[in-house]
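We modelled each protein-ligand pair independently. The example shown here corresponds to the zinc ion entry; the chain sequence is given first, followed by the ligand as SMILES.
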Amino acid sequence: MDNSSSGQRLRTCRACGKKFEYPVKGSAATRHHCEDCAILPTDARKVMERLSNRITQLELAVKRLMPKP
Ligand SMILES: [Zn+2]
């Protein structure tokens, strides 16, 4: 089981990348999606996740291209 007794953890939404607290009473947020994305239709969320993955990859690629300090 979860070892956090205080309950709330900061999570990153898989679809939009937003950081959100979970669980929050009365919030539609799920373990992997913030409350904005949790209410999206599954198909739309799938596309969001695909785009989010691409952004993550692009961010990594940009970081690799950055000159080292
Ligand atoms: Zn989200």
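The chain has a mean pLDDT of 91.
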